[in-house]
Amino acid sequence: MGGQEEKAGGADQDGVLLRAVASGDTAAMGTLYDRHAGWLHARLTRRCADPEMVREVLQDTFVTVWRSADGHRGQEAGGWLWTIAARRLVDAQRAQERVARFTGSPLEPDSPGGYGSGTAPSAEDRVLAGLEYGDVGTALDRISPELREVLRATVVDGLSTREAALLLGIPEGTVKSRARRARAELRAALAQLPPIPLGGTA
C-alpha cells in the first residue's frame, strides 16, 4: 500500500515540476532532470551502443521538455519523457543512416536497421522496422488507426505494455490484444501485396 502511495506522490510531484518548468522555472527543470536523467540514460543505452549519441539524445530530450512542458497533459511523466527520448533517438539514428547512405559507409552489423545475425528479416519485420526508421510500407496503411498507434507506441517509442497503456489511455490488456491484432492484420495485408524487395544497390 505504501509503495502505491509513494508512486502516486512521485507522479504528483512530476506534474508539479512540469507545470513549474512550463512557467520557466529553471530550478524545477534541474529537479526533473535529477529525477529522470539516470533511468532515461540507461534505457537509451540499451537501445543504442553509441555513448555520444546517447548523451546528445538525452540532452536534446530535456531541451525539448524545457520548450514543450506546457504540452504535458497529465499523463505519467515517465511515459511522456520516454516518448520524447525515443523519438529523439529515432531522429538521431535516421540522421546517421542518411549520412551513411551519402558517404557509402555501411551501418554496423548490430546497429538499428542492420541485421547482424545473417538471417534475412521477414516481410513483417521489415515493415515494422520501416515504421521506426521511416520507410512505412503500404501494408501498414491498411491497418486500422487504433492498431497503428499501438505499434507506434511499442515499436517507435519503445514503450512497455504498461507505458503504452498509460500513454494511450487504454488498459494494458487492450494494448496486448491490439498489438496481436495489428501483427495479424499486417501479415494478412502483406499476403495481398507483391513481395517486398530486400535493400540493395539500384
Structure description:
By secondary structure, the chain is mainly α. It has 2 domains: about 1-110, Orthogonal Bundle (Rna Polymerase Sigma Factor, Chain: A), CATH 1.10.1740.10; about 120-195, Arc Repressor Mutant, subunit A. Helix content is about 70%, strand content about 0%. It has 9 helices and no strands. The chain has helices at about 1-20, 25-45, 50-70, 75-105, 125-135, 140, 145-155, 160-170, 170-190. The protein is globular and about 55 Å long. Mean pLDDT is about 75; it is low at about 1-10, about 105-120, about 130-135 and about 200.
Features:
mainly alpha, Rna Polymerase Sigma Factor, Chain: A, 2 domains, 71% helix, 202 residues, Arc Repressor Mutant, subunit A
List the helices and strands and how they pair.
Elements: H1 2-22, H2 26-47, H3 51-68, H4 77-103, H5 123-133, H6 138-141, H7 145-156, H8 161-168, H9 172-191
Outline of this structure?
This protein has 202 residues and is mainly α. It is built from nine helices and no strands.
What would the average pLDDT be, to the nearest integer? 75
CATH class of the largest domain: Mainly Alpha
Q: Major β-sheet, in short?
A: none
Low-confidence stretches: 1-9, 107-121, 132-136, 198-202
Question: What share of residues is helical?
Answer: over 70%
> Beta fraction of the residues?
under 5%
Count of β-strands: 0
Structural class of the helix and strand makeup? Answer: mainly alpha
As for the number of domains, it is: 2
Looking at CATH, the homologous superfamily of the largest domain is RNA polymerase sigma factor, region 2, helix turn helix motif
Overall, the morphology is globular
Give me the CATH fold name of the largest domain.
Rna Polymerase Sigma Factor, Chain: A
Radius of gyration: 19 Å
SSE order in H/E notation? HHHHHHHHH
Summed up, the helix count is 9
Domain RNA polymerase sigma-70 region: 32-98
Domain RNA polymerase sigma factor 70 region 4 type: 136-186
Organism: Streptomyces pluripotens
GO molecular function, one term: DNA binding
